[in-house]
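Slides due. Your pick:
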Amino acid sequence: MKIEIKKYGTTYTVETQTDDFEVVEMFDIFTGLLIQLGYKQESINDAIKELADE
């Protein structure tokens, strides 16, 4: 699997050897990508909690 995001002219990529992931593993992958983009872990956690409450 490959996920690529371009932000302000910089490309951030996550590439894995397999495509078979559980939901928790996908959250870990997306969280790592968000951290590369400059988001703080606490902000990511707060956003996930907020979405879960909806």
Notes: The first helix runs from residue 23 to 36. The first strand starts at residue 2 and ends at 7.
